[in-house]
Amino acid sequence: MSVLLLVFAGLLLLAVLLSSLANRTILSTAALFLVAGFLLGDGALGVVSLAPNDEIVATLAELALFAVLFTDGMRVGWKDLRTAWRLPGRALGWGLPLTLVVTALGAHYLVGLGWMESLLIGAILAPTDPVFAAALVGNEKVPPRLRQLLNVESGVNDGLALPFVMLFLAVAAGSESLHLGELGLELGLGIVIGVAVPWVAIKLERTRWFSASTAYEPLNALAIGLLVLALGKATHGNLFLAAFCAGITVATFGERQRESFEHFGELIAELFKLAALLVFGALISLPLLGSVGWRGWLFAIVALVLARPLAIWISFLGSGLNVREQAAVAWFGPKGFASVVYGLIVLASGIAAAQEVFQLVAVTIVVSILLHSSTDIVVARWFDDEQEVPAWYGVARRLRERVRKERGAS
Question: Does the pLDDT at position 399 exceed 60?
């Protein structure tokens, strides 16, 4: 534990020192933690020794996903969803399930997994990660509708994929209808906790008896999140669905609470994400990557290059997006943090195909991080006016106009 903490602290300091460079180049802090975990894990140097059944793995995955879903939910209050639903609705209502289905077909026919395990992999790999689209979203020359689409989609799809992951995992574990009923109760209880706790807390603060000071304002949403986490643990409600619903509830009813917590919350979520990537990398080894065979690597390519682009193309037929915009949305469907944690949850679940599912998920995420983190700057520059119209093009056009005028004068 102490070694893991030391390694994480050192990598975090290095990431901070390199963060400005990473914003201008293809360098990615996410890739840094993943690669460092791989090199320092048992598969290479053996500095960080972890096993899938270690308590730290499950605990970190749980806390990290809770924090990320809570902050994701805060990005998309009901008002945001209602005013900006047209294009994100296509990506989430059609693109997400189509990506799930195409990915599942690849897992079944290319690798030979059973249908339930294939659907589980599809649900795990369906969400996208906004980290690798940061250069695109941050480029003011990118059309606002495209930036809004990527923001809303990446903020919502982690939570939307969660029930499918839980359902397919329960069925793959051999659950009977009674257990599925318990799963439904768990999900429903998570929704109730996630909506009720923040709503009551926000209403209490608006009474004449309570008021948060400026210094404690950022802790308001943190206290709500911790209370949701504790109640979910105590009642066995689904923590992740509770976190996502709590974030949406705060964003909907407590705009001030959301604004005061936004920067603080993003930092907390980022810490957990980087720690989970380090642990995920430490669980990957060369034998694991090699054991998937050429079919597993082919599946990873299909999941990244075919599943998402095909789903987006179908989803955005007649949407008004031009070819360049559709291509950008289709390519930026990277498999990131949510897929990492879902993969860790499956690995610790004990289902018969847990190791095989984790291997395929791990290979796909590794390829995705390497490909998407090295192409975000390139794709973002598609929308740069100077890149779109090179300088020589303007000079050549002026020369042609001058020649045309001279010929007309003669």
Answer: no
Topology of 52-409 in CATH? Na+/H+ antiporter like fold (1.20.1530)
H or E, element range at 56: helix 55-75
Residues 169 and 345 sit within 8 Å (Cβ to Cβ): yes
Q: Which residues make Cβ contacts (< 8 Å) with residue 367, sequence separation at least 6?
A: 297, 300, 301, 304
Q: Name the DSSP class of 319.
A: S
- Does residue 192 sit in helix, strand or coil? helix
pLDDT digits (tens, 9 = 90+) for 208-265: 788 877 778 888 888 999 999 999 999 988 888 898 889 889 888 888 888 888 888 8
Q: Would you state the structure tokens that stand for residue 372, as one six-digit string?
A: 């998407």
Indicate the residue type of 216. Y
Q: Region 144-160: what's the mean pLDDT?
A: 72
3-state secondary structure 1-30: CHHHHHHHHHHHHHHHHHHHHHHHCCCCHH
Which three-class secondary structure string do you get for 110-154? HHCCCHHHHHHHHHHHCCCCHHHHHHHHCCCCCCHHHHHHHHHHH
Round the CA-based radius of gyration of the chain to a whole number and report it.
23
C-alpha 227/C-alpha 211 separation (Å) is 18
Domain ranges of the chain: 52-409
Specify the pTM. Answer: 0.76
**pLDDT over threshold 70, residue 138:** no
Residue 126: which residues within 8 A CB-CB, separation 6 or more? 96, 97, 99, 100, 103, 157, 161, 164
With tokens 């599809």, the residue in question is 122
User: In a 3-state reduction of DSSP, which class is residue 307?
Assistant: helix
pLDDT over 70, % of the chain: 79
DSSP state, residue 336: -
